[in-house]
Amino acid sequence: MNSTVLSRRDLDFLLYEWLDVEKLTARERFAEHSRETFDAFLDVSQQIAERDFAPHNRKNDLNEPTFDGTRVEIIPEVAHALRVFAESGLLGATMDAEHGGLQLPHAVQRACFLWFQAANTATSAYAMLTGGNAHLLLAHGTDEQIRRFVHPMLEGRFTGTMCLSEPQAGSSLSDVTTRATRQADGSYRVTGGKMWISGGDHELSENIIHLVLARVAGAPAGVKGLSLFIVPKRDLATGERNGVTLAGLNHKMGYRGTTNAVLAFEDAAAELVGEEGRGLQYMFHMMNEARIGVGSGAVALGYTGYLHALAYARERQQGRPVAAKDPAAPPVPIVDHPDVRRMLLASKSYVEGGLALVLYAANLLDQPSPENDLLLDTLTPIVKAWPSQWCRLADDHAIQIHGGYGYTREYPVEQFYRDNRLNSIHEGTDGIQALDLLGRKVTQGGGAGLALLLDRIRATAQKSELGAPVLAACDRLAATTAKLWAAGDPAKALVNATAYLDAAGHLVIAWMWLEQADAAGDSAGDFYAGKRLAATYFVTHELPRIGPLLDLLDSGDTLLLDLEDAWLG
Amino acid sequence: MNSTVLSRRDLDFLLYEWLDVEKLTARERFAEHSRETFDAFLDVSQQIAERDFAPHNRKNDLNEPTFDGTRVEIIPEVAHALRVFAESGLLGATMDAEHGGLQLPHAVQRACFLWFQAANTATSAYAMLTGGNAHLLLAHGTDEQIRRFVHPMLEGRFTGTMCLSEPQAGSSLSDVTTRATRQADGSYRVTGGKMWISGGDHELSENIIHLVLARVAGAPAGVKGLSLFIVPKRDLATGERNGVTLAGLNHKMGYRGTTNAVLAFEDAAAELVGEEGRGLQYMFHMMNEARIGVGSGAVALGYTGYLHALAYARERQQGRPVAAKDPAAPPVPIVDHPDVRRMLLASKSYVEGGLALVLYAANLLDQPSPENDLLLDTLTPIVKAWPSQWCRLADDHAIQIHGGYGYTREYPVEQFYRDNRLNSIHEGTDGIQALDLLGRKVTQGGGAGLALLLDRIRATAQKSELGAPVLAACDRLAATTAKLWAAGDPAKALVNATAYLDAAGHLVIAWMWLEQADAAGDSAGDFYAGKRLAATYFVTHELPRIGPLLDLLDSGDTLLLDLEDAWLG
B254 CB contacts (<8 Å, ≥6 apart)? Predict the structure, then answer.
């Protein structure tokens, strides 16, 4: 029986038949690895995800963490799952061997981690945050900080958070007011309130290492005045509580198993990461990783929703073909009804397209070069936002395919939807990603990032039977981008930025489908036929959506700028 | 301070300035009414909705009905609210005075009831179901049945349900297996299991009157063998329990305050409604009303979501305009950000457009004629499905506009989304509505319904400055419809029926916006400017979505028919 968590067959296709990650083992960094070790980590990931993560996914949802004023209670399955995960070594999957890492390629690590995100997104979040925290410190911390903070994280003893937002400063980090005061001994004290801190407090680990954005006295206004601090929950030497207290837990629509905290820092002992005033720059290192992680999480939730819907549609018998005349004929499986097929095929195109994109992005990380770095930088807002919207739609379709049953909590798909809803919000909303893409990524370096992206897309499209509309879309996107920025007026150029993100996102996924169709070639078998089918679907049913979006952008429409707020009601 | 439940200003505009419902008082049926009585019912609806319904909306969600094996426990606020509602007389708002009704026009009743649906959709559902039940019996029951069942409903003593679905027969009523056996005295006994019965059991009323679809022994297969029965929970004379037991409650993603039951009928005393074999025909009377009610409920939930989002966007300060350079400048209200405005304006266009449509439909009911009946029949699948999709999107936008806060249960918008998610499922899924529209409504009578609809749309568009693209869309929809049916092959004609519903729906709402812009004229003031703005938005940003949909339909694409299920994965 096939897994309803994720498809190993698809991962194998993407990793080995398409991206050919085996060739990475020719690189010194991955020389110890082979197809066998990659497979072993994929196997163990599926095994742990299905055995230790998936079974408590609903229990997580029904039994949120609670706070009695003293400690946070979490169902015991979470600690157990995280312990097994840490023991597998996967937390340091991509890290250097000298720090206890496995030096796995990012593409393989990403594929492994998707199993956990699909099986239990709330429990996997603790691991994802800890990994991101450790990566940041490996890149910007001192050897001493790495030893004291990162190594215990990789051993599963400590967990990590990122503390950016404040109640009045979510998307707008320039308004962060938490302040840090330098002490005579070179250490710091941090005071302020932080909001939306996932994994912000719990008893799952001996210690929680908070990475906190704060403003040193006298620092300039805006993001340039932000510095980054390590603030442990407990003193590493004495185990005594630091000045970090849990002011309360947030209660969400989904993602309920992950504690999400309001934290009060009061004169908390802290140490600086790197240099003062560069906090946001360091944090972006973690945020870019987190954004790809969010996109992956959205793919994972959409993928498992799709697999559940597909299994249900094959099993559930109801209705007859529209042309059938005999009401006494037996009902058919609902997968035979065109509208159910439409939702399934659309979902397949979203989740497999999204999966290809996140693995493609991870594979760029494995082959660093100025060109690949630029391409990844350009793609990041799409990797984050596109799956958050469209793989969420796969979960929405999964509810609809299940009908009334899908709307009940007896079936898992409504939870997938609720969990996935967060992905369009955290780590930068879709609207923020749109501004990042059109306002920064496609303009910087004289438009080099967009030119490179379109070159890559065109190279794929030129050799594809399905390529003509994709080539046309590339030309249109280039022309639209140039036209938007011709006057150099950011307010006007960016007024319909979301339409731009939507159009660019669909073009990128069309590219991912041409790539997959190319890798499938004319190979025999249902799996490859499915890849060709979904590629055809995406190019013929989905890509045309971008026409009206580009028309709107080309028209120079500024309705959203020109209106008066009072007209809204 | 403006209400965040619904906009009385908008209702007044639509009812009085656009539909001119005052002129209905020239009809004999409404002769006792006047603007003053209409206003009085609108006033009292808002008052009761805000005072007795809205305050327990979240409590309803957090405290679902429970069943201890003996009785169903519901928070006491529900019974109180329903009592106040019954006392207002609104349950029989449109019914004949001889039965205790108020003979209000449907358009006014609809506007009144929207207040309750927006304030507390779960509590209002009990009233909606009872009203639908009573309407059916008024149309098809005997005088005796009306006296015994309908009158106590209007007095608030009894409530009603509709029992169609069974575990194996949701969308496909031809598979209903509940059976009825005729007794010597002319009464019947009903045995079988029914599923998804809203209001199916509770202690809110003295008795529950179930309307049950069942098959009399020897009846033909399919829907033609279905008859309709009245099955009271308790014997009217003795008060003893009938053979109807609660087998369990369903637990849903939203709509949690409405009991939703699995009912077991075992040798339950029943009486026939009308004639044997005409059950589905009678039930459609109730279902058409219910479908308009579902569309209205979707509008109501989207509308209140929009009003909450608008209030939040004006209050919440964050970020600066993209062109601003000074990070020390104070933040602006987020309503100033174009992407927030995009979501607000889109939502406004959906919820006010949807509201116009449901009131237009109700107004057709108030002026029965062969033409109006045909138009309403044609519009019904759109009235049901369009708000279920797009006003739900307004709730989705409302979450996004609230950011992280909107995703928490501290704010009401996530509940609006969850509640609204049901509307695309119950009373016929969106996919079923699409088949109804393209397979039945636009083809019957030689296409008279579509021709009439397009005539009405064209008449409006021809006098509008915004009319050109709407006229073009009318021509395209007519041509596409003809092309789809040219070969007379239902399987091929209907394969992309959902795309057809989406296109027709957006065209109809564009029409509703031209109508509103026309009614607003060039009147001064923010309210009218808002109507013109939203009309412009809908025609320029939304209507173009139908281009790719009609292109797909015109292409004769049959991808969804041709695929093999095994290719899906």
Answer: A407, B61, B415, B417, B418, B419, B420, B421, B422
